[in-house]
Amino acid sequence: MATIDIRQEATGLRIILHGNLSFQTVEALRGKFQGVLSAMDEAMPLILDFGDVEMVDSMGLKLVLGLYQSCEIQSRPLFLENVSYQNGQVFKLCNLEERLNIRYRDNAPDTPS
Questions:
Q1: Torsion from C-alpha of 59, 64, 67, 68, nearest 10 degrees
Q2: pLDDT digits (tens, 9 = 90+) for 21-80
Q3: Nearest Cα to 6, choosing from 37, 27, 26, 22?
Q4: Phi-psi region at 72: left, alpha or beta (left = phi > 0; alpha = psi -120 to 50)
Q5: Helix H or strand E segment including 54
Q6: Above 70 in pLDDT, residue 108?
Q7: How far apart are CA 19 and CA 15, in angstroms?
Q8: What is the mean pLDDT of residues 84-93?
Q9: Contact between residue 9 and residue 47 where contact means Cβ atoms under 8 Å apart
Q10: CA distance 10 to 17
Q11: Could you give the CA distance from residue 86 to residue 92 in angstroms, rounded to a whole number?
């Protein structure tokens, strides 16, 4: 099961993800993300906090890409923060690391470059 917490910050709206972004969880999260996007002020940055995400599979990647596309349409910056090295590798292998504005955890070993 995956859950989210939402927190308004000076730098944007932070969505804190808990659990895995996987086949079993993406449908429930997709609806929550759509609701958040529709309620947000225009152009307010969206920050996905991956600090409590253990694993991202192909369906989780698809969810993040869909969110990215929605943000692009709305001219809304999207940032992925506190991404672990392992999850960062998923984005890197798909050549999405720069496009998704990934910020790695401070304790990530050998942050991908």
A1: -130
A2: 999 999 999 999 989 988 888 779 999 999 999 999 999 999 999 999 999 999 999 999
A3: 37
A4: alpha
A5: none
A6: no
A7: 13
A8: 93
A9: yes
A10: 19
A11: 10
Q: How many whole angstroms separate alpha carbon 113 and alpha carbon 111?
A: 6
CA–CA distance, 22 with 101 (Å, rounded to integer): 21
Q: What is the pLDDT of residue 3?
A: 92
Residue type, 110: D
How many CB atoms sit inside 10 A of residue 57's CB?
A: 16
Biggest CA–CA distance in the chain, Å, is 37
Task: Name the token pair of 32.
Answer: 């929550």
CB 52 within 8 A of CB 90: no
pTM for the predicted model, two decimal places: 0.88
Amino acid letter for position 105? R
The answer to whether 31 and 10 are in contact (CB under 8 A) is no
